[in-house]
Amino acid sequence: MTQAATDERSIIAPEMTILDIVSKYRHTEAVFKQYDDKAGVCLCCEALFFPLKDVAHRYGLNLSELISDLKVAAKGG
Fold it and tell me: How many domains are contained in the chain?
């Protein structure tokens, strides 16, 4: 598999819900747990069906930082 194919498979977009991401990339659950303190809630409990862009806005999170961390986790890193 080429690097481009690997990158394409691990794309996490702002429109994806937490459920979409965790279902597709199990390692990302740990990232959401790390962001729980910043958000002040359990994101997987309170925002499972919300798109990332809405989660970031609602809980005052840096969207690009969150997506970057999720991409690393999605690649198994």
Answer: 1
